[in-house]
Amino acid sequence: MNMKDKRVVVTGGAGFIGSNLSADLCRENEVTVIDDFSTGRDGNIKNLVSRGKVRLVKGSITSLDALKTAFRGADYVLHQAAIPSVPRSVSDPIKTNDAGITGTLTVLVAARDCGVRKVVFASSSSVYGETPELPKRENMECRPMSPYAVTKLAGEHYCRVFTEIYGLETTSLRYFNVYGPMQDPKSEYAAVVPKFIDCALKGEAFPIFGDGLQSRDFTFVKDVVRGNLMAAESDATGVYNIGGGKRTAVIELAKTVSEVVGSGMKVVYLPPRPGDVRDSWADTSKAKKDLGFEPAYSLRQGITETVEWFVKERKSKTL
Ligand SMILES: NC(=O)c1ccc[n+]([C@@H]2O[C@H](COP(=O)([O-])OP(=O)(O)OC[C@H]3O[C@@H](n4cnc5c(N)ncnc54)[C@H](O)[C@@H]3O)[C@@H](O)[C@H]2O)c1
Known about the structure:
single chain, alpha/beta, Rossmann fold, seven-stranded parallel β-sheet, two-stranded parallel sheet, globular, binds nicotinamide-adenine-dinucleotide
């Protein structure tokens, strides 16, 4: 999938997924990033900004003025900005709500007013909650279990309503556990893949919340980037799963990471976290049919590329 000669805004472009999107898009398109750096890292886009490949607007997506500055003349908005963590939302639901719901509504208003052709919204598999059927299909019941998941479901509804009332084209992509280069391993809310890789490289034990048999559909970030470009350029609106399409237990992930790094596998078991679902697995057939999306990376391929990036960053002491 190749997008060319478009003007694209990436909200949250200094974050993990947003910076991967920006790096890919800026080769053949004009890219603007808006970010308030609340969870994003300057290092993720510093090079792109200093080489003039990306225009940076520092500001919050809750500010209509900042958004209008960023969105003027844009073809597409790839809306990634959010406070993206279930446990973080459990400890600070108001902050999650501000970015996730007020921020998304403000993005949609600004996109409508600036004549943007399409908004692609980063939703999440967490909207499904603890429902028994697997794999998850888009027409299944959603029962969010955390404030974070509530903001994602509300964002999807806002997108649909803006399409229906104002004719603004929108697509919501439900990402399933994304991992890859530029993902932050440091914060106390770090996602499981960067956390395990960091531990493996330091020879530390992998922390596992619960029994390790909980499963996730791990999705390599380059597949998510492709899914966004396909959604932006397609006529399809509505909700789509974007996943790796395979289900992996957390303990199996630990084994894969330790094999790729070549470290031993030590594990420390911690109590399960409130708001976390037991199992998650994407049925991506709707995205294949309407967007032409299929995941291209196996878990081992994706983990191998990610480990290579971590090793390089640690050598240059940027991580
Ligand atoms: N990483 C995953 O596994 C995953 C899974 C499902 C959905 N998502 C969604 O994908 C998107 C990107 O996630 P990520 O993993 O790259 O997270 P991230 O924290 O690395 O990126 C989020 C970015 O949004 C920015 N941001 C937060 N609040 C903002 C605000 N008010 N104004 C401007 N910028 C703001 C942050 O500074 C950060 O750069 C998020 O919407 C997240 O909810 C991620």
